[in-house]
Write a structure and sequence with these properties.
two-stranded antiparallel sheet; Actin; about 10% strand; 3 helices; ATPase_NBD
C-alpha cells in the first residue's frame, strides 16, 4: 500500500441518510483481515485455511465436491 497521505485510494460514498463519507485504505483492510487475522491483532487462521482444513476433514469421496 502507498503512504498514509495518498488520496488515490479514497472514494466517497453517500449513505442512506444522505451523509457522505470518504474512505481509503480501510476498504482493503477489512477484507484482508479475513485472510490475515493478524492485521487486526487476532491469532487465528485465515478463512482460506479454515476452509481447507474443513474440507480435509471430510471423506475423500466428497472433497472434490466441496472444492467445486
Amino acid at each position: 500500500m502507498k503512504g498514509d497521505g495518498d488520496t488515490s485510494l479514497e472514494r466517497s460514498y453517500k449513505l442512506p441518510d444522505g451523509q457522505e463519507i470518504s474512505i481509503g485504505k480501510e476498504r482493503f483492510i477489512c477484507p484482508e483481515a479475513l485472510f490475515q487475522p493478524s492485521t487486526i491483532g487476532l491469532q487465528a487462521m485465515g478463512i482460506h485455511e479454515c476452509i481447507h482444513q474443513s474440507v480435509m476433514r471430510c471423506d475423500m469421496d466428497v472433497r472434490l465436491d466441496c472444492y467445486s
